[in-house]
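One chain given next:
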Amino acid sequence: MITLKNLLNEIDYTLEQGSLETEITDIVNDSRRDVAGALFVCQKGTSFDSHTLAGEVAARGAAALVAAEGAAVDVPPSVTLIRVADTRRTYALLCAAYFDYPTRKMCCIGVTGTKGKTTTTHMLRAIIETAGDKTGLIGTNGITIGDRHIGTRNTTPDPYILQQSFRQMLNAGCRHVIMEVSSQGLMMDRVAGIHFSIGVFTNLSPDHIGPNEHASFEEYAAAKGLLFKRCRTGLVNIDDEHCGMVTEGHTCRLKTFGIYGPAAHRAENIRSVREGGFMGSVFDYVGRERYTVELGIPGLFNVYNALAAISTAEFLGLPKEAVKKALKDIKVNGRMELVYSSEKCSVIVDYAHNGIAAESVLKMLRGYDPARLVVVFGCGGNRDPHRRYEMGEAAGRYADLSIITADNSRDEDVRDIIKDIHVGFDPTGGTCIEIPDRREAIAYSIEHSQPGDVIAIIGKGHEDYQEEHGKRVHFLDREEAEIVLKRLGWM
C-alpha cells in the first residue's frame, strides 16, 4: 500500500486538510483520466488551469489533491489537500516516488543539444549493448525497453511515462538508460526526480525560439544548461561556440571532447571513406587510450556524435573492442542511414527537413566525391512556405539532380507545394524533375542511378507514415528503397 506520506517524503509541502495516511492508487494530472483513488495534481498551463476542476475531480473520487499555494480550489473537507510552491515540479517528483526512484538504481545518461541527440543516444546504446549490458532508450524515436518499442509524442515524455518506463526498464534487467533531454523537458521540469549519472552536450544553434517555446536564444541555452546542474558528470563539446553559455553555473564535474579545441577526448586524422559496402569516416580516437575507429555513418557532425558516445563509454569503463564493433556497424533510423552502398550507387536516408539541414547534408555528401549527387525531397503541407524556398535553394545549389516529390502534404495539393519549392530552386539553375508520388520518385532515383552516384532521400527520415488530406498511411523511405534494391537484385 502506498500512502500520501510515502510519496511526500522528499517534497516540501503543507497539509491543508485531510490525512497523510490516505492510500493512493495512482498519480494523475489530466482531469480526463480516471481519478478514482488517485492523487490528482493541479497545474496551470498556458491556456488552461486545472485548479478550476478541483471540485469536479474530488467528486469523481480522487483520494487527494495537490494544489499551488494561494490557488483557489473548492473541495469538500473529506478530501485531503496538499499545498506546494510549484505543482509542475512536484508532479515529476511524485511520479519518481510512486515508481520508487528507478533511476537511482541504474546509470542514467542524458543527452542534450540542438542536433545529434538521437544519433548520439543510439551510438551509445549500441556500444553498451555490444559490451553485453541491456540498455533502455528514450527519445525522438520513442521508448525502447529490450525488444519492445513504444511510440511517444515528445522527445522528453510526461514525467509519469518517464518514471513508469524507467521502472519497466529496471524490472527488465536494464543497468543503463540513455535518454534525449530536450530544452522543453528541462524547462518544464519533466526530468525533475531523475538522477542523471552523466549529462552530454552535443551542440547549440538557434532553434525552438518563438511563441510557446523559448523567448530568446539565451533562455534556450540556459534551459539546456539545467542538465549540468542535475548530473554528477558532464561531457561537453568544447568546440561548440556556445559551450560556455550552456555550462555556466554548472555543479557537476566537467569533461570535454572535441576535434579542434584542447579536449580530453579527441578525434584526429579524420578521413571520409567510401569503398565496397562501407561509407563513413575513419579517425583516430585519443583519450585514455589511442585507437582507430571506423564509423559507418557519414559526416563530420557524426564524428562529433561518435566522440560524445566514445568518451561516455570510456568513462563507463567499456572496452574499446565494443566501441569499434558498434560504431562500424551503426545504423540510426532516418539519421544519415546508409541503406545501400556498392560500386553501383549509395543510398542514404536522412531526416533533413529544412534548408539549413538539407544544405549541411548535401555539402557533406559532396565530400565523398560522388559521380552525381541525387536528392529526393519534398516539403510538408500546412507549414511556412519559406521552408520550401530554402529546401529548393539548397537542393539546386548542391545536388546534380533533384527529384522533387511529396512529403506529408496534409491538406494542401502537392503540386502547389512543388510550385513553392521552385521559387527557391529555379534561380540556382539546378537540374530537377518532378515526380509527385514519393514511392515512384524513390524508385526512379535508384533505377536510373549511374555507377558512383550518391542518392540522398531526405525530409522524412524515421517517419513511418505519409499524411495526405487527413489520412495517414504507412510509408518508410528506407523500406521503399529496399524494395527497389531487392527487385533489381542488388541486395
The longest strand covers residues 265-275. The first helix runs from residue 4 to 7. The chain has a mean pLDDT of 94.
